[in-house]
Amino acid sequence: MPKKMNIPPLDLKREYIFAKKEIDKNIKGCLKNQHWILGEPVKELEAKVSKYLKARHAIGVASGTDALLIGLRALAIKLKNKEYFSKEDEIITTPFTFLATAETIVRSGATPVFADINPKSFNIEPENIKRAINKNTVGIIPVHLFGQSAQMDKISQIAKENNLFVLEDVAQAFGAESLGKKSGTIGECGAFSFFPSKNLGSYGDAGLIATEDDQLADVIKILRVHGQSGQYNAKYIGYNSRLDSMQAAVLLAKIKYIDKFNGLRIKIAQRYYDGLKDIKGIQLPNSGNKLQDAKYAHIYNLYTIKVNHYNRDEMLKFLNDAGIQARIYYPLALHKMEAFKTAKISESLANAEEASKTVLSIPISPFLKNREVDYIIENIRVFNHK
Ligand SMILES: Cc1ncc(COP(=O)(O)O)c(C=O)c1O
């Protein structure tokens, strides 16, 4: 056995060292200017993200959760002329995601309807969306889980045929693409998170909404500042949800490297694929795709394998004992949680339930060294021969 290593799920210290000069400079700029709320760095970041995504509007908010919630509220205002959706309004989404996706549907007044995932990509399956649609359905929230775009061509087509909105949950997929368009720019709006563990991560909470729609953009900008259309005059019940200058300054230093960072993640995914592909009973994410030409490109926010033939929890313990901080995303599908007991279930959610019992995410970050990747591969192989 190789000498024991300690490998965190994501090594942010190495990323900081790489971009330290620019990050420190930008933070010092904030200290000098003292414009903390929606200051110059926020405007600059919004312009940079809008250019990068080729999105007409990029609007910074306080978190990815707020991006989803404010996006939904703006859609209710635009499409229904109501501040909130009502309980009869159904929004179809995946039960295999972080809780914020469905939590914000409930907070926007609507009812989440869970449709099952594809067992290979872990993303919502378009055919299952189709069957979940009824006269009360108003929209779809696909999640680009683990960094891989959902099947946006099919989802957009279904939405068009049924007059539904699509809000993309892009929290885990900054820089991913679907059929040549950046994820988050295909639906009515895209909700991004800059939580520190995301591919483009801030040093606290931060998020952003992208949209092509001028009317939605106007409402979103009002909602993020307490619903004020003029100073101290509220048009809607809104939020204190501004992206602060310090977070924007950190993100500005990092955004210029996002394609490099995503490219490094793809290289690591390729190394995992080469080292693990012959092991029977382990399903790997589709690997080796080039960022630019893959149909549903993956930028590996997480490298999640599915352990079909082994005891997943035993494997998790084996890796953790070897110093490899593998994790489970997610151990419980949302429809199994008490908080979502009023959500609706469309048909069987067997794939999501199975995934929650068999998935395992192994460390991936741009600066993971080849010898660390090889150590992880070797340990998985040793476990496989036990
Ligand atoms: C799929 C998904 N949606 C939404 C969110 C919420 O983002 P935030 O943590 O920035 O509020 C996250 C973040 O963890 C996420 O992974």
Write the layout of secondary structure elements.
Elements: H1 12-33, H2 40-53, E1 57-61, H3 64-80, E2 90-93, H4 100-107, E3 111-114, H5 126-132, E4 137-141, H6 152-162, E5 165-169, E6 177-178, E7 181-182, E8 189-193, E9 207-211, H7 214-223, E10 228-230, E11 233-234, H8 245-255, H9 258-276, E12 282-283, E13 303-307, H10 312-321, E14 344-345, H11 350-358, E15 359-362, H12 370-384
Parallel strand pairs: 2-3, 2-4, 3-14, 4-5, 5-8
Antiparallel strand pairs: 1-9, 6-7, 8-9, 10-11, 12-13, 13-15
Helix pairs in contact: 1-8, 2-8, 3-4, 3-7, 9-12
Bound molecules: pyridoxal-5'-phosphate.
Describe the model:
With 386 residues, the protein is α/β, with parallel strands linked by helices. The protein folds into 2 domains: 14-255, 3-Layer(aba) Sandwich (Aspartate Aminotransferase, domain 2), CATH 3.40.640; 258-384, Aspartate Aminotransferase, domain 1 (Alpha-Beta Complex). Helix content is 40%, strand content 14%. It is built from 12 helices and 15 strands. An 8-stranded mixed β-sheet has the order 1-9-8-5-4-2-3-14, sandwiched between helices. Strands 12-13-15 form a 3-stranded antiparallel β-sheet. Strands 6-7 form a two-stranded antiparallel sheet. Strand 10 (228-230) and strand 11 form a beta hairpin. Helix 1 crosses helix 8 and helix 9 packs parallel to helix 12. The longest helix has 22 residues, at 12-33. The protein is globular. It starts with 11 loop residues before the first helix and ends with a helix. Bound molecules: pyridoxal-5'-phosphate. Pyridoxal-5'-phosphate (PLP) is lined by residues 63-65, 97-98, 100-101, 143, 169, 171-172, 193, 195, 205, 207.
